[in-house]
Amino acid sequence: MEISRILIRELTDAQIIELKEVDGDRTFPIVVGMPEAYAIERSLKGIKPPRPQTHELLSSVIEHLGGFLHQVAIDDLKDGTFFAKLIMLQGGDDYSVDCRPSDAIALAIANHVPVFVEESVLDEIERNPIDTEESNPAEDHFDWD
Fold this sequence. Notes:
- The protein is α+β, with helices and mostly antiparallel strands.
- The chain has a single domain (2-131), classed as Bifunctional nuclease domain.
- Helices cover 30% and strands 38% of the residues.
- The protein is built from 4 helices and 8 strands.
- The chain has helices at 34-45, 54-64, 101-111, 119-127, and strands at 2-8, 15-20, 27-32, 67-78, 81-90, 93-99, 115-117, 140-143.
- The strands form 2 sheets. The chain has a 4-stranded antiparallel beta sheet with strand order 3-2-1-8.
- It is globular.
């Protein structure tokens, strides 16, 4: 998956990240918080904050412990809530850590690693599309196509 666009709306805390299949047509939105949306936007634009933010801190901790982030996976959808995992490698072993999808996406973008979505999650979204039509005239659209 890749980010096709970010919708940052200043009048609400709920921001939207739209993911799109790299070699397909399926897309879906994930609602994220303002800090995660800004972290993702900064990473996409190549902007480094003057001090490490949470996502930079976690990346640094993983690296200093001799590991690296290999990929992230959005692996479940229950009652409208997405679930994700960080997949890390350290010393030839892989480790999976539960994570919020917004944090997982922010870390994936910052570390240039792929975002995967389980087929069962994509199938569920196709059966029950997520409604994000809380349109706002002050919203800003950042398209990454």
